[in-house]
Amino acid sequence: MLAAGPRGQPVPGGLMPPGARRRGRPPAALLLIAPSIVFMAALFLWPLVAGVTQAFTGPGGPTTAYVRRMADDPYFWDATRNTALLIVVLIPLQFALALAMALLLRQRPRFAGLHFYIWVVPLAISDLAAGLVWLSVFTDRGYLNSVLDHLGAGPYAWLSFENPSTMFLAVVVAELWRATSMVFVIVVAGLQNVPRDYDEAAAVFGATYRQRVRHVLLPQLRPSLQVALILRTILALEAFAVAQALTGRNFPLLVGETYQWYYQLQNPNVATAIALVVLALSIVAAVGYLRLMRGQPGMHG
Amino acid sequence: MSRRGGLLVQLGCIAVTLFMGVPLYLIALAALSSRESLNRFPLPLLPTSLSGETMSTFLRSTGIVGGLINSVTVGLGTVALSLAVGLPAGYALARYAFRGRDPYQLALLLTRALPIVVLSVPLARIFLDTGLYDTSYGVTLLHTALALPTTILITSAIFLGVSREQEEAAMIFGASPLRAFVRVVLPQALPGIAASAMFTFVLSWNEVLGASILTLNRRTLPAQVLATLADSPLAFRFAGGLALVLPALVFIAVVRRYLLNMWGTTLR
Amino acid sequence: MTHRSGPISRRALLAGIAAAPVLGACGGVSTTGSGGGAGSITLMSNQFSPVEEKQRFERILQERVTGEKVAFNQVETGIFASTLQTQADAGKVRISVAGALHGDLAPHASRLTDLDDVLASLSDRGFAEELTGLAKLGGSTTKYIPWMQASYVLAVHKKALQWLPPGADVQRLTYDQLLTWTTAARQANGGKPVFGIPAGVKGLYHRFFQGFLLPSFTGGQITTFRGPDAVTAWEYMKQLWAQTARASTTYDNLQEPLQRGEVLIGFDHVARLVGAPAGRPDDWLMVPAPSGPKGLGYMLVLAGLAIPAGAPEPAKAKNVIRALTTPEAQIDVLRQNAFFPVTNAAVPGDLPGAVALAEAAVKAQREAPGAILSLPPVGLGARDGEVGQIFKNCFKEICLDGRPVRQVLDAQARELDRILGELRIPCWRPDPAGNPCRVA
C-alpha cells in the first residue's frame, strides 16, 4: 500500500497550502487515499442519499412539508440559537484552556505524568456518563449545593428553567470538562514536533515567554490547531447528551432535536431535515475556518 | 524560569487537575455509596458510607462479560482498521498536493456532522441484507467510519511535522520508500498515532446508539447496559458510569506513553 | 517508564491490535444469555428497562416459560421501533416476540402476525373485552395478546397530610383541593413546593393532560381540545404549576425525587412510583387521581405481546405468549415489577407493601363514581408521539413561557387538526366515536 513512496512534492503546511502548488504524482496520492474513499463512500453515501430523499419526499412525492413542520416547531429556533450560542462561547474557552494546559505541561512541572493522566481521563468518558457526573454536581440536592450547605449558604436551583444563565453555565462547564481533553491531546501531540531548540534559541535572544508562544509555538502548532478547531466544532454541533442530562429539553440543541423527532415523535422525515441543518451549519463553519486560516501565511518549511 | 513562575506553573497544574479530577472522584464516590446515602441532603463529600451493593447488582446483569469481550473486540478492531485505512490517507494528505485534496478533507470532516441515528438506520438495513447485522464486524465497520476522519486528519497534521529531509536521506542511502517510512517517519509520528488510536478506541468504547441499532443479541458493553441504565435509579447509573469508565482508563494509561515518549524520561 | 521499555510494549500493543479481528472471528459473543442460537426465542421489549426490573423479569422468564429458551432483549423505545421496522421492511426478522405498550405496537400493525388463533386458545385466561378490542389496533384481527396493564396515580408521603385542607378526603381529592393543598403545603414548607410531575425529557407528563386533567375538566381529549372548558383546565394547570417543584422539568420519574424527599406528593405511572414506598410502605399513601367538574378522568396503560410477520420460530413464540399470560406469570409480574394482570388472575393478599398500595389505588380509581376512562389512541400509528408532543407544547407555552392560554390552544389545535385531517380516523374514548375525529 505504501509502495508508491513519498516522492511527491512537500506541502508547505496547513490544510490549505498557500500559493501555487507544484503538482505531485497524483497516482501515488490517489492510491493512498483510495481505501478511505471507498470505505467512506460505502458507509456514508447511501445513508446520506437516503436521508436527503427522506427529508424532501412525502407519501405523495416531493414536498417541503417536513421542512415547514420543522420550522413551525417551537423548539427548533430555540435549539438553533442555543447550538450557535454554545459553540461561540465554548470553542474559544476550550482552546484557551487546552493551550494553557499544554503550555503548563511543557514547563515540566512536578508530577507532570500524573497531571497529564488526569487531564486526558475525561476523554475516556462517554457523553452519557459525563452528563451523569455533572448532574450529580448541579442538581438541586447535588454535590455543589451540598458544599454550599456545608458553607452555610442556601441551595440554588442551578438547572431550573427559570435560571437560564446558570443552566447555560452548567452546560458550558460540563462540556468544557468533557471535551477539552481532546483538544489538549491534539495540541500536545503537535507540540511534540516543535523542537525545544527553537524555543530555547528564541529565549537566548531575549524573547519574552509571551513572544515565544506567539511567534514560535503557535505558528508551529497551526496544522494541529486547525484540525482540532474544525473537528471540535463539528463534534460540538453533534454533542447533546450532556445538555440533555442536565437540562432536559429546557436547553434544546439541534442534534438533540433530531433524536427527539426520530425516537419520541417517530418522524424520521423531520429528524433528517434537522440533521441536514446541522450538516449545513458544519459546512459553513468548516469552510469559514478554512477561509480564515488561508488568509494567514504558513510558517512551515 | 524564575521561582515565582515555577510556583505559578505548579498552581496552574493543580487547579486544572482539580477541575478534571474532582468530578471523577465524585462519580466514584457516588457509584460506591449506598443507595440510601445518595438520598440524603447534604450529600456526604467523604467516603463515609461505602457500599458495593449497587455495583455488584450492576455487574451481575446478564451479558456483562459477553458485552465486555465484544466491546474490546470492536474497539481494537476499529483501531486496527482505522489505522490501516487512515494512515496512508493521512500520509498522502501531508506529503502530496493533489487535485481534490481540499474537498476530500472537507467531505471527511462533514461525515461526522451527520447524527449517528440518521446513519445507522439505513446501515442496519444494508447489514441485514449482507449478513453483517448483529455481528461485531458490522459495529466495527460503523465505528471505523466514525473514527476515520479523526485518524486521517490527526495523523496528517503529525506527518506534516515530521522532517522530510531525513526521510529523503534514508532513501538516498538505499532504503525503500516503505522502509524509510517505517524506520524514519513512523517512530517520529508515534505520538500522533497514539493520540488518534486513543480517540478511536474511546470513541468505539463509548458509542452506544449505532451499536444498539446494528446489533440484537451481540451487544457491546455500553449498548448492553447504558441504555438500560438511563431508566434505572440514580445509584445504578453512577455504578454503570464508573464501570464503563474503568476499562477506558486502563487503555489510556497504556497508550499515553506513546503520546509522551518524545519528552523522554522526564515525565513519570 | 523509560524510553527503553517502549519498543517491547509497542510490539505487545501491535500484537493485541492484530489479534482483535481473530478474537472477533465468530462475529461477537452473545449478551442475552441464550446464545441467540437456533431454537432460542428472542423477546424484544422496551419494558422493564431499570436494571433490577430487568433482572427480575429474566428470572420470571426462566421460571415460568419452561418450554422454550428465551433471550430477553431490553431496548429503548426508539431502538425498539427502528429495529422492528428495519427488520420487517428488509424481510429478515430476527425477533420472535415483541412486547411493548399499545402505543408502541400500533405504528407497526401492518408488520405484525394475526394472533386470532392464539387468543382463541387462551379463552380460559379471561381477558377483558375492552383490552382484546384494543388489541385489534383498529383492524378486524387480533394483532397482539394483552400482556399487562397499569395506570397513573398520586403517591403521597404521610408528612404532607398535615397540610391537607379541612374537609378534603385524600382518597377522593378534587383538583381544587389538590391546588389548595399544594399551596398550603408550599407555604408551610418555607416556600418550597412539595408537588411534582414527571416533566423531564423521558417523563410521561403529557399523559397527565391527555388522560387526567382534560377529561376531568372537559369530558374529552381531542374534540374538546380548544373549548371553553379546556381554557379553564389550562388556567388551572397554570396555577397548579405555580405550586409545583420547578425541578419537575428534569424528572423522568417521580420515585427518585419522592425517595430523596425533594417532593412529597407526586403524579406518575404506577411502575415509576412504587420505588418510593418500597423501603417504608407505612410512611406512604397511593391515592387515585383527583376528579374535576366532569368526573375522574383516568388513563389505561396496556402492554401487549406481538409476533412480527416473518418471525423465526412462530410456534415457539406463541408458546412463550401463552406462558406469559398464565395466572402464575401474571401475578409474578405484579408482585415483582408492579404491572397489573390483564387476565382474571386472582390478586393474592400478600403483595409487597408498595405494590399493595398501588394495587388499591388503581382499583379505587377504576371504581370511583364518575370515573372517565381514557383509552390509548387507536389509529394514530407513528403520529402517536407527535400528538403527545402537542400536549407537551401546550404545557411548555402556557406554564413555562407564560403565553396566553387561548392563543396557545388555538395554535396547537391547528397543528392537531392537521395531523387528524391526514389520518381520518374515528375518535377514541373519552371522545365520542365520531368519524373522522377532529377538534371542535
TrEMBL record, chain A:
Residues 1-20 are annotated as: Disordered. Keywords: Cell membrane, Membrane, Transmembrane, Transmembrane helix, Transport. Its main location: membrane. GO terms for biological process: transmembrane transport. The chain crosses the membrane at residues 28-49, 84-104, 116-137, 167-191, 227-246, 270-290. It is found in: Cell membrane. GO terms for cellular component: plasma membrane. Gene3D superfamilies: MetI-like. Pfam families: BPD_transp_1. InterPro entries: ABC_transporter_permease, MetI-like, MetI-like_sf. Residues 80-289 form the ABC transmembrane type-1 domain. It is a multi-pass membrane protein. Belongs to the binding-protein-dependent transport system permease family. This is Carbohydrate ABC transporter membrane protein 1 (CUT1 family). It comes from Pseudosporangium ferrugineum.
TrEMBL record, chain B:
GO terms for biological process: transmembrane transport. InterPro entries: BP-dep_ABC_trans_perm, MetI-like, MetI-like_sf. It is a multi-pass membrane protein. Keywords: Cell membrane, Membrane, Sugar transport, Transmembrane, Transmembrane helix, Transport. GO terms for cellular component: plasma membrane. It is found in: Cell membrane. Its main location: membrane. Gene3D superfamilies: MetI-like. The chain crosses the membrane at residues 7-32, 68-94, 106-128, 140-163, 184-205, 234-255. Residues 68-255 form the ABC transmembrane type-1 domain. Belongs to the binding-protein-dependent transport system permease family. This is Multiple sugar transport system permease protein. The lineage of its organism: Bacteria, Bacillati, Actinomycetota, Actinomycetes, Micromonosporales.
UniProtKB/TrEMBL annotation, chain C:
Keywords: Cell membrane, Lipoprotein, Membrane, Palmitate, Signal. Pfam families: SBP_bac_8 (PF13416). The keyword DNA repair does not apply. InterPro entries: Bact_solute-bd_prot1 (IPR050490), SBP (IPR006059), TAT_signal (IPR006311). The keyword Cell membrane applies. This is Carbohydrate ABC transporter substrate-binding protein (CUT1 family). The lineage of its organism: Bacteria, Bacillati, Actinomycetota, Actinomycetes, Micromonosporales.
